[in-house]
Write a structure and sequence with these properties.
Layout lengths: L3 E7 L5 E7 L4 E5 L8 H21 L11
Antiparallel strand pairs: 1-2, 2-3
Length: about 70
């Protein structure tokens, strides 16, 4: 069983950080060596985007892929 998902994120300035989705704890951790008060809201937006995309992706994994025209 997968306990965590690790998502490396690169911002527009080339800085890397790591988002950890903990499924057991139902928490999201953001590891960033360059976080300051100015960037908190920007990072929160990035975290929300990653979570939304990951949840949508895993939800869609349950669907059967049918090539166009082969219904």
């Amino acid at each position: 069983c997968l306990k965590c998902k690790y998502v490396p994120v690169q911002d527009n300035d080339g800085h890397w950080s790591l988002i950890v989705l903990s499924f057991i704890d139902k928490k999201v951790f953001h590891l960033d060596s360059n976080l300051n008060k100015v960037m908190v809201s920007v990072r929160m937006d990035t975290i929300k985007l990653v979570i939304t995309n990951y949840c949508l992706y895993t939800y869609l994994l349950n669907y059967k892929v049918v090539p166009y025209g082969m219904v």
